[in-house]
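Data availability (excerpt). The following record was deposited with the supplementary files.
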Amino acid sequence: MACIVGVLGACNVDLIAYVPRLPTEGETLKGSSFEQGFGGKGANQAVQAQLLGADTVFISKIGGL
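Predicted structure:
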């Protein structure tokens, strides 16, 4: 029997900046690199369900408020 998983949740783009150490309060550090990554609790759950072999449906709102 096939398993169908429906996920209703958040989907966003993570902005990741790499710096040599954690900044102190009010300090600005120059980063060594920058990446964007796909994320959000709902999106991550849908991806994992699909990787485990379930037929997966993901519903999320995108765009402005």
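Summary of structural features: The chain has one domain: 4-19+29-59.
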